[in-house]
Structures are given as C-alpha cells and as structure tokens.
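Box 3.1 — From sequence to structure: 24-hydroxycholesterol 7-alpha-hydroxylase
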Amino acid sequence: MEQIASVSALFSPTAALGLLVALLTAVLVRYLLPNASHKPPYPPCIRGWIPWFGAAFEMGKAPLEFIARAKEKHGPVFTVLAAGNRLTFLNGKEGVSAFFSSKDADFQQAVQKPVQHTASINKADFMKSHSSIHETMKLRLSQNRLNLYFDRIRNEFGTRIELLDPEGTEDLFTLVKQVMYPAVVDTLFGKGLCPTGKDNLKEFAEHFWKFDEGFEYGSQLPEFLLRDWSQSKQWLLSLFKKIVIEAEMNNPLEETSKTLHQHVLDTLKGIATYNNSLLLLWASQANANPVTFWTLAFIISDPLVYKTAMDEIYSVFGKTGNSPLNINEAELKRLPFIKNCVLEAIRLRSPGAITRKAVQPLKIYNYIIPAGDLLMLSPYWLHRDPVLFPEPEMFRPERWSKANLEKNVFLEGFVAFGGGKYQCPGRWFALMEMHMLVVMMLYKYEFSLLDPLPKQVASIEDAQETGDCKEIICILMAATVIYNVPYNVPYGSAF
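Predicted structure (token representation):
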C-alpha cells in the first residue's frame, strides 16, 4: 500500500507543478545562460554520400573551387569528411591565428604519417629527431649565415649556366632544373657527393623527378598502388645509404667546413640518416625549381615588367655580355624589384592547403573543433584576398614595396613560408638562391615565350586538358622559350 501511495503522489497536482517548474528552470538555464551548460556546436560539415570516402571525390575534382564554394556557403570554418579524415578548413584572422599559434594545433602530428609514407621514417624516430633537425636547419640557414653559402652557390650557378647552349629553344622549367638542381645539391651536400655530372646525372634525375611528381600521392596512398613511384623511392633510399656513409667518413671537425647535410647528420646521431637525407634533397628542390620557373615566366610574359627588371640589372652591372656574372651580396641587395618578382610569384603559386592536427578541442568563431581533426589553411585563397592584395590575380611586383623586407616583415596575409614555431627554416636561403638565379639567367640571356603563360590548374577537367591529372592543385610547367646570348644587342631585339 505504501508503494501505491507514493506512486500516486507523483501524479498529484502539486508534484506536477513542481516538475513543470523544474523543467522550465532547466530550459532557461540551458538557453538563456548558455555559458553555464550549452557547448558551442561543431563546424558545419560536408559529408558527401559515400561511406568513408565522404566528399573526397567531389573535392578532388576541383579542390580550389570546392574550398571557395564551401567558404561562401558555410562561413570561415567548415569541416569536410574525406577518405576517413575530418578536414576542418580555417579562414579569417581568428582562424589563421589559431592555426599558427595555438598549442593545440600540432604540426608534427599532422605530417608524421606523410613523412613515414614518403621516406620510411617510423613514428618514434620522427618524433625523436624532427624538432632538433628543424632547429639545426633554422640555425644553419639563418640570414646571418647566408654569407657562408653565397659565393659557393653563385659559382655553381655560373658554372652550370656556362654549360648551357648559347641559344636555342627549350622548355623553361627544364632549363631552370638543369641549372638549379646540380648547383644547389653540390652546395648543400658537397661537391660530387650526389650524382650531378653528365655521366651519372640522367638516371638519378629520372628517379628523383618521378619521386617528386608522385610525392603527394605517395604521402597518402599505400606503396603497392604506386609501383613506379615506390621503385624510385627505394632506388633513392639505397643510393643515400652510400651517400651518408661517405659524408660521415669525410665529416670535418671544423664547423664552418661542414656542409648543411653534415650538420644534419651530426644532429641525427645515426637515427634514420639516409631517410632524412632524401627529405633534405626533396625539400631543397620541390619549391625552389617551380618558383624560379614561375618568376621567369611572369617576368618574360609582361614586357613592362621585363623591361623594369632589365633596367635594374643594367643599373648595377651595365649592359650584358659574354662573361659570367660574378655577383656579390651587396649587388644582389641593389636588385629589389627582381626580389619582389620572386615574392609575387610565390604569392600567386602557393599551395592549395597546408595542415596541422587538433590535439585538443579548439574553440574558433564560436565553434568547437574536436581533437583529431586535421586543420587546413589555404595559402592559395588567403593570397587572393582583395582587401589584403588588390587585384589579387594580377602579377604586381610593386605591391611588395610596402613590405619591410629589411626587417624580415612580409605583407600582411602572406603565409607561403608558414608561421609559428615551424615556419620554413630555409626561407632565407631559398629567397637568396631564387633571387640570384633569376638575375643571372636574365643577365645571360634574352628570352621570348613561344607559348602562352601556363596556368595553375583548379580542377580535374583542366588537368585532363593538359595531361596533368593529379587530384590536387596541379601546376603546369610547359612554357617553351627562345633564349639567346644578347652580345650587347639593345633590349627588345628578341621580340
């Protein structure tokens, strides 16, 4: 009887009123005082319709357009489910700041698996050595140490340029690689350590460029799906085992006599030495070659820019001639317009996305991004913000006159070299080498484009038209040029 009485008491008018008051109170606390119990929502999510694959196919067809449409529809933060991953794209000041500055946005965890796939470095070895390698590179390639490399790389560039034919018709990207690859490798690894001569360069170059061209796929997919790429990777790793042995046998005690490669080997202390050596080679070539190509292509394709660049060169060195250009550091600093051309080419041809990993939940723009998400930032679209970069699609080197490059301050919104703790450690060396090579090639030759300026591919359809079918941002290196030694012929005679 007591049980029946207590149950019936639950349905008395007084109890019902009390329950209603409690429910209303809970609702008020939840919705009128959100900080007390209501958590911000997850970002809008684009899921696609195929399990696991999600929106991967849709995004892969036209990644740049996909990102732009998603931002327009969903705002500055949105998540894409693709190939089993949650990719959360960040935009705007708050998003960019969190991407580069938050302790919960981790670079190492974002890149560990791609590094393991491309260079066979296991997680334990990567986590143990990555920070120390980064600090070594940052120190050895800092601005106040560039003088240690300047004369060497200038001489290497000069030697390689002199080996080119005095005139001819050639693919511009091939022309750049013929000079930059051996010169930079001999500078950073030591003369003759890597194959850079006529007798041994061809096979090495074939494997390296195959490795480079498939790098994005190789960083994500199992090797059995990429047979040719995997064979080139294993060929290169086998070669670097021999290169590391020779570099360590001839490693000098004096710090200033060591190559950058030997400094890295000292830092590694035997951990994944040949694997990291392959990554060092790739890092030295993967961006410098295409940016140098694009800088020359942009300059040559615009008569006014070309004339301005040549006038600057003439103002420092006089009219061009047959002798190699023995440029020094002070003279290179007197060529700011050409350096601005390099930076503008970098702005226009930066990658579609860079990544970090959320290791703890992140609150951005009133959204909670869960731990485990891959955070994505698009330099391509950030560099096309018309507020920060007026006429963003135009090649305008003069915009860089507003940057304080003497104090290492780039333009606001320029993120090509990354940011935060893991900003590109080789950025100053890269700017120096690209600036120098562009000057030396413009001084040596008069160029005339035979093809229209190639474009940056935004979709699979565009890529199929040109034969380049990567499912990422594809850059075409197909400009053909006529080049010839001017022999003091007045500017413009080649047009």
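Summary of the box: DSSP finds 22 helices and 13 strands in the chain.
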